[in-house]
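Model it.
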Amino acid sequence: MSRDDARARDLGWRAGSSAMPARARAIENVNDASMIRLRSTMLSERARARASGGRRSANADASIGSRAVGALRVRENARGGVGRRADDGGRNAGVDARAAADREARVAGPSKTSRGVREALERKAEAYERLVRGEDDDFEAREDERVVDFTAKADARRRERDDHDGIRPGMGMMSDDMRRELERREWERGVDEEEREKERAAIARRVVFDIERETERERDARDDAKRQREDDDAARRERLKAKFLRDLKSGRRKLAK
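Modeled.
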């Protein structure tokens, strides 16, 4: 049965005690003002701890946010560097340079390069030109005729860029440093909360111990005073009894005479 159920159940006057409740005794150095000061101190310490925890969380969030923005900018710059530009009609800037290098190689003749290398360069330049102009629609289907495996190169560039940024597959934009920072922040928050709980428990135990000690002293003093009153009453009764007996004997003597 819960406490609320016990309070709600009323057994009537037969279950109530006829003894009047004793008046609460004041404990030395413990009053309403001291309890108010204690409560105020506890609330101020709690507010200070929350404020310091909030500042640490804000600083950590700002640091993580700046790192995430930096990683995003690096990824965008890398993607923008290999993407097409609108001002040159969608042509890759490296195509013209490679075509010029191929023409120089053809002009140089067999003395500078071998015939097989020159033919490979020519095929590569023609493939690039067809891709840029959009004339080779069946290029993806003719995998065996490709001069360059563009899919493999794109995957290699993507893996290299992700490794450089510290980003792993399946983690989105969160790098290892960001993940460790989040774990460290969670750990610090847990440690701080545990320390605050221990401090609150210690304060509560200390207050309860002080109250119990004061109550024990008051109880001992009350018992001592009760025993002293009982001893005084017994001594007074003995004195009255002795006086009564003396008076009784003296009266009998007077009657005998």
